[in-house]
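Posting here for the record, re: zinc ion.
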Amino acid sequence: MHFGYNEYDNRQRRASGMRGAHGGLVSMLLRHPRILLILVFLGFGVFKYFGSTEKKENPFTGESVRVALKPEQEVALGLQSTPQMIQQFGGELADERQQRRIDQIGQRLLKAKDEVLRRRGIDDFDYPFRFHILRDNQTINAFALPGGPVFITQALLRQLPSDDAVAGVLGHEIGHVLAWHSNQRMAQSSLFQSIAGAVSMATDDPRIGRAAGQFVGQFLQTKYGREDESQSDCIGVQLLMVACYQPESLMDVMEVLQGSMKGPRWPEMLSTHPFPETRKKQIVEYIQFFRADPFAEWDASDGWN
Ligand SMILES: [Zn+2]
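Prediction output follows.
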């Protein structure tokens, strides 16, 4: 019978296919279920990454990036996390004069940001930026939350020799917010987790597997972390120059950071931030670039490191 014949033929073809080019892979996977499991795990991470995130062009950097949150969600998350941050660093410093000072410096930088965007015909990219001084007088640190809250510790503020250096710190933090850095890293985190999980499954010894998985996950995170820092330095330099602050003051900031990093350090490859020495060299390049035209766009097609 024709029908029967065809059916038989198909099965034949499928059976012989199993032994062919694809068959090698299929039977290999069947013999090694762990590899199949690893692939499923990786596939899940990739699926989640592309399914739950959105690719959008960033109005300030011009880059197309994957993000997890919409702007209003970023703002909500930032506002929600602000009290916790403040509490972790000993509360807010009740010093009206210093608060006025960082508010003024911050506003001048934000006007520069608006000016850069205006020249590109964009007038609707903004976040409710707020500048907070944290009372902590031991920890040299500054950071930004998604959607606009920017923090600087009293310890760091005290060590900065000039308004220009304070502007250097705030401009860099504004850069993190504008470039959607936290938002991008949130989008990647489930992907990195599944890569780390897949690596940890690839070995027989669960302890070695876990360590290897953690290492790979951390390696990816720190790689992107360093790129974010370089990009924020670049944005910071541009904002400083458009706002008529001295961008060279960033060297003073790097000195302060270098001074706070005494003792043994992780290799740069495993650090979330490039070393201050590396950043200094990059900052010199950014200054030269924006000195020619403060409104130019830095071409990052070769990457940020
Ligand atoms: Zn940073």
